[in-house]
Design a protein that fits this description.
The complex is a heterodimer of chains A (149) and B (434). Chain A contains 5 helices and 8 strands, in the order ααββαββαββαββ. Chain A is an alpha+beta fold and 149 residues long. The longest helix of chain A has 9 residues. Chain A is globular, with a radius of gyration of 15 Å. In chain B, α1 packs parallel to α7. Classes of the chains: A alpha+beta (149), B alpha/beta (434).
Chain lengths: 149, 434
């Protein structure tokens, strides 16, 4: 339904305070949502990094900051190595990466480390978002989209 | 290893940068035991070349520039021979000879030797204070020299020139950039984007001299400045030659390996000689925008080409889908992304869609045959990845071309099938059955 709550909870979860008002109004550097919600007539969905099998962002990273974590299979960014050149943003065909301009490093979905279920999934009022583990093919088509790991 | 001793390898990789690492990683994925040796004439393990600007500016140390973690090589059983130059190839015997006299045999060879700076013959070139800017060694040499320097001239207004200019300005050095053509970054930007970049550079205090070359570097015991082709003198104590880069093809020349401007490779990244591969800045590989083999000396293409070469070297057939010129820059606080054909000459073939906003945003997409052939984004660059993805995927965009630069542009405008694929939506069972 395109409510955008996933973005709100994403931004809050990636803030220092984890408090919605502080995250949106007070914090500096400003926390960044790693989700884009698209709405066009009857089409609407929530989009973030899909931790692709063929991660163009990893292949294109100029510093080695963007890499696949061997243990989890997730595509992660090493904040210390990222130089904020945004080559990964050009490489990602889904536009799933975001500039964190205050820190000058790329921001992306990290599936909310420390949480059992990512904040966007946990707080989706319509259950449109589900967390799908790799190799589980048996996923029905949702109005929304899957959060893949 | 002593002189004249032979080192036997399964995979020998000459060059330890993006291409060499891409190949080594994909070889190791396929072949857990074959011996992989990477040689480099530089004394460091692979580092991020684009970061030499931050190194020079004093913002990063070498350890923070490494392309892979320090334990990467040991963990993957990849041996490094650093600070060693390959002298010659013997393709018949499958052996290379090093400058030091050592010999290394291979079963599969990768030439990932990169590029070398173009240094034209200018009077006064050999005096102290003239540098190139391609390697960490170059950055270190400038850093060691810069002590009393207050003014520099950078010859060449391309990526390397602007990158070294930014580092020098951060160090408090006044810089004049001398560009032969009439605008900076002229190979990767169109007129308008070049102009915007130039205005930004000037606002930040950079001197820009276009349409001229340097004909002489003045000074006897110490550098005094440069003389331009119109006779004008520009005082400086440091010159950086940043005219361009040529493929480093020496090793391949006169060996029978087909060399054009770069080493010619097929879609497997294989050269014309069996068991010899090439990738990166030295290779002339397929460009999917032009539909021909071209030199596209950018880091991602080197890494991806290396991955493809590595797979084929390990006996797993893989095709290089092709690369094209693609760059993302943010010098002096200005975010720019660019790819493919940016300044089309023939308006009967190409259609241009562009927009410019008062807040410094400029976006342009170049279309041909219903496909995206090029793009330039300045300021608001976050959707350029979707555009580049359409380029790379050769997606017909006729149906939504006027929305490509819309504020709400996104996957919602893509053809439904492509959107579903991108979003990873799996058709429901009922839908699959019907």
């Amino acid at each position: 339904m395109g409510c955008g709550l996933c973005q709100v909870y994403c931004k809050t979860q990636h803030s220092v305070s984890k408090d919605i008002l502080k995250a949106f109004k007070k914090e500096s550097p400003r926390p960044v949502s790693r989700i884009r919600v698209e709405r066009k007539a009857e089409i609407c969905f929530s989009l973030r990094c899909r931790h692709c099998d063929e991660p163009w962002c990893v292949y294109s990273c100029l510093t080695g900051a963007m890499h696949r974590d061997v243990a989890t299979g997730m595509v992660v960014v090493d904040r210390n190595k990222c130089m904020g050149c945004w080559t990964c943003i050009v490489a990602c065909p889904n536009g799933a990466l975001t500039r964190d301009l205050d820190n000058k490093i790329v921001a992306k979905c990290d599936l909310c480390p420390g949480l059992e279920v990512p904040a966007c999934v946990a707080n989706c009022p319509n259950d449109a978002l589900v967390l799908v583990e790799e190799d589980k093919e048996d996923v029905p088509e949702f109005a929304g989209s899957s959060v893949r790991m | 290893m002593k002189n004249n001793e032979r080192l036997e390898t399964t995979y020998l990789i000459i060059g330890s940068s993006a291409g060499g690492i891409g190949a080594a990683e994909s070889i190791r994925e396929m072949d857990k035991s074959g011996r992989i040796v990477i040689t480099s004439d530089e004394p460091y393990p692979a580092y991020s070349r684009p970061l030499i600007s931050e190194y020079l500016a004093g913002e990063r140390i070498v350890e923070e520039m490494l392309f892979r973690p320090a334990d990467f090589y040991e963990q993957h059983g990849i041996e490094l021979l650093l600070g060693k130059k390959v002298k010659s190839l013997d393709l018949g015997r499958k052996v290379v000879e090093m400058d030091s006299g050592e010999r290394i045999t291979w079963e599969k060879l990768l030439l990932a030797t990169g590029g070398k700076p173009i240094v034209p013959d200018i009077k006064g070139l050999n005096q102290k204070g003239v540098f190139t800017f391609l390697t960490l060694g170059d950055a270190k040499a400038i850093a060691d020299y810069i002590g009393s320097v207050s003014r520099a001239v950078v010859i060449g207004g391309g990526l390397i020139g602007i990158s070294v200019t930014e580092a020098l300005m951060k160090l408090g050095v006044a810089v004049n950039v001398v560009e032969m053509k009439d605008r900076v970054l002229n190979t990767i930007l169109d007129d308008e984007a070049s102009l915007m970049t130039e205005q930004n550079l000037k606002r930040k205090g950079v001197g820009i001299i276009t349409g001229h070359t340097v004909s002489e570097i003045m000074g006897e015991s110490s550098m005094e400045g440069v003389i331009l082709d119109n006779g004008e003198r520009v005082p400086c104590e440091l010159v950086v030659m940043a005219i361009g880069v040529l493929p480093r093809t020496e090793l391949a020349r006169n060996t029978g390996i087909k060399v054009n401007r770069g080493i010619v490779v097929d879609r497997h990244m294989a050269t014309s000689c069996p068991d010899v591969y090439a990738c990166g800045d030295v290779a002339e590989a397929y460009d999917f925008i032009y539909g021909i083999n071209r030199i596209t000396p950018i880091w991602p293409n080197a890494y991806i080409g290396g991955m493809v070469a590595g797979r084929n070297m390990a006996g797993i057939e893989a095709d290089y889908a092709g690369g094209t010129a693609m760059n993302s820059l943010n010098y002096f606080g200005m975010d720019i992304t660019t790819a493919g054909i940016v300044a089309p000459q023939d308006s009967s073939v190409y259609e241009v869609i562009s927009r410019r906003r008062e807040d410094g945003v400029y976006q342009k997409v170049i279309l041909g045959d219903g496909l995206v052939k090029g793009m330039v984004f300045i300021g608001d660059i976050e959707k350029s990845g979707m555009i580049f993805g359409l380029m790379r995927g050769m997606v017909k965009v006729d149906g939504f071309k006027h929305e490509l630069l819309a504020d709400d542009f996104g996957l919602a405008y893509f053809p439904a099938e492509l959107r579903r694929e991108r979003l990873g939506v799996v058709p429901s069972k009922a839908a699959t059955k019907s």
